[in-house]
Design a protein that fits this description.
Blueprint lengths: L2 H15 L6 H18 L3 H8 L7 H16 L3 H12 L11 H13 L3 H14 L4 H14 L2 H11 L7 H14 L3 H8 L10 H17 L3 H13 L4 H15 L8 H10 L6 H17 L3 H11 L10 H15 L6 E7 L8 E4 L10 E4 L5 E7 L5 E6 L5 E7 L6 E5 L34 H9 L4 H9 L12 H9 L10
Parallel strand pairs: 1-7
Antiparallel strand pairs: 1-4, 2-3, 2-5, 5-6
Helix pairs in contact: 1-2, 2-3, 2-4, 3-4, 4-5, 6-7, 6-8, 7-8, 8-9, 8-10, 10-11, 10-12, 11-12, 12-13, 12-14, 14-15, 14-16, 15-16, 16-17, 17-18
């Protein structure tokens, strides 16, 4: 008998002995709820729905019936009804401390997060994690949901204080916290929260793998090569498969960019992949991808293409294509050429341009460079020189009112002329963002907008087309820069901005 059902059965027994205190109808309701939940265990969803009809509520019996009914609703495609049912119970004062079972709690928290109800999701995640302290999924959700609406540093310390080292699933929880600290650019604290591996023989094998994998990555990002080696030796002593450990060791060093004096990263990846037959296919695919990318970065493009071609029949290699690798190689050759040898001429032909129209043309460099706005003469001919770069150039043709009439891309050909025929369409209306604000209240405020992973080529193009009015106004009236982060994690980049030098104190 499952634990929730056992608790309900005990409650029924207690009720049955309390003659004259609880009505017979109440006992009957408890028995019906227990029968419904047994039906849910065997997937008899129609029976569950029939038995729980009119039996749900905010009391203990009604909540048990509601959980089993909700599982049946989810299984039969009525997810919205399940959410409505749970929300109704959570709104009842009698269920103030209650949270549904972990499966339903995770579903409801994720649903609220997707709907933008971040504070509600965070509140439920905290309550559910307290009610089910051994569930690592709820532990993770509490971290990410509360961390998005509260001070993440305080949340992290609170969660760390709950770890005792005695619970079976705690190893995974420690790994969750360590990964968060690593993303925040704090490998020392990540290592501290990982602690020591306790009784690996009684832990879930996957949890042990994640713990060791995370510890290796933390030590690698700390630059501690000897620590990484010792950690993988410990892992092998704890029962790790040597071939798998060689693969994970090579990936760890590669991702952290940590070099060894006796082996190159390419040698490590090649050896690991050669010995990887029989390992998890996802792990082998990660090895191939890292090997291909590392070879390209080392200008060994032909070898990278050879590895790609041999691996492609066996792996999807998501995110990689032969054409992309060839372009990357061509671009690397391109940037080595002097600027003058990359120059080409662009000739735009615009029919019947009205007075005041202009052509906005992107710059070759820098990546966030402003567009050159060139007035269009009555002849409609515009000539410009640009250097061939790693991305196509963008152009936008606008009328005297600044409305976009045509736009496109073009790639210069070094030493040659490229003709561009412009075909104007109907003017595209646009609006300007109003960033006016009331008088100051004596408090200084700074807003930072980080375009995570944004391609400035596209951002600038959309600005030139008047499609990002708010962002355009923010850029025009503020300061901007292209952010280069090492390590390449968003959280680490923001930490470096808000707290320079690694200080945890706020920066003003």
């Amino acid at each position: 008998m499952k634990a929730p059902h056992l608790a309900l059965a005990i409650a029924i027994l207690v009720t049955a002995t309390g003659v004259g205190i609880i009505s017979v109808d109440h006992v009957r309701g408890q028995l019906t709820a227990l029968e419904a939940c047994r039906a849910a265990d065997s997937g008899q969803w129609s029976e569950v729905l029939a038995l729980t009809e009119g039996q749900v509520g905010a009391d203990a019996t009604g909540r048990s019936a509601a959980e089993c009914r909700c599982l049946a609703l989810l299984a039969t495609g009525a997810g919205a009804a399940c959410i409505e049912l749970l929300e109704g119970i959570l709104d009842d004062p009698r269920a103030e401390e209650w949270a549904p079972n972990p499966t339903l709690a995770v579903h409801l928290i994720q649903t609220w997060r997707d709907a933008g109800r971040s504070h509600d999701a965070a509140s439920l995640a905290g309550r559910a994690a307290q009610n089910h302290p051994d569930d690592p999924d709820l532990f993770y959700l509490e971290l990410v949901t509360r961390g998005s609406v509260e001070n993440e540093e305080i949340v992290l310390r609170e969660l760390e204080a709950r770890l005792t080292g005695r619970r079976p699933r705690e190893l995974r929880m420690r790994t969750t916290l360590a990964n968060r600290h690593l993303l925040r650019g704090d490998p020392a604290r990540a290592l501290a929260v990982l602690g020591e591996l306790l009784s690996p023989d009684v832990e879930n094998a996957a949890d042990v793998t994640h713990w060791f994998d995370t510890r290796g990555m933390v030590l690698a990002w700390s630059g501690d090569l000897e620590g990484v080696r010792r950690s993988y030796t410990d892992w092998e002593r704890a029962g790790g498969d040597p071939a798998e450990l060689r693969a994970r060791y090579a990936l760890t060093l590669s991702l952290a960019g940590l070099a060894e004096p006796d082996h190159t990263l390419i040698q490590r990846l090649e050896t690991a992949f050669a010995d990887s037959d029989g390992l998890d296919p996802d792990l082998r695919e990660r090895l191939v991808i890292r090997l291909v990318l590392t070879l390209v970065n080392a200008d060994r493009v032909e070898q990278a293409l050879d590895v790609y071609d041999r691996a492609r029949p066996d792996f999807e290699l998501a995110g990689l294509s032969r054409a992309e690798l060839e372009r990357a190689a061509a671009h690397r050759e391109l940037v080595r050429l002097p600027h003058a040898r990359r120059l080409g001429t662009l000739r735009f032909a615009i029919p019947d341009p009205p007075p005041g129209s202009a052509l906005a043309l992107s710059a070759s460099t820098p990546v966030d460079g402003e567009y050159e706005v060139i007035p269009v003469p009555a002849s409609g001919g515009v000539v410009a020189q640009r250097a061939l770069g790693t991305a196509p150039l963008h152009w936008v043709y606008r009328d005297a009112l600044g409305r976009t009439r045509a736009s496109g891309t073009v790639s210069p050909i070094p030493g040659e002329e490229v003709d561009v025929e412009v075909s104007p369409g109907r003017p595209r209306e646009f609006s300007r963002a109003d960033l006016s604000r009331p008088a100051g209240d004596g408090r200084r405020r700074v807003a930072l907008i980080l375009l995570d992973g944004a391609d400035w080529n596209l951002v600038q193009y959309l600005r030139a087309r008047r499609e990002l009015p708010f962002l355009d106004a923010m850029i025009e009236g503020g300061y901007r820069a292209v952010l280069d982060s090492d390590p390449p994690f968003t959280a680490a980049a923001l930490e470096a901005i808000v707290a320079p030098g690694g200080s945890s104190a706020a920066s003003f």
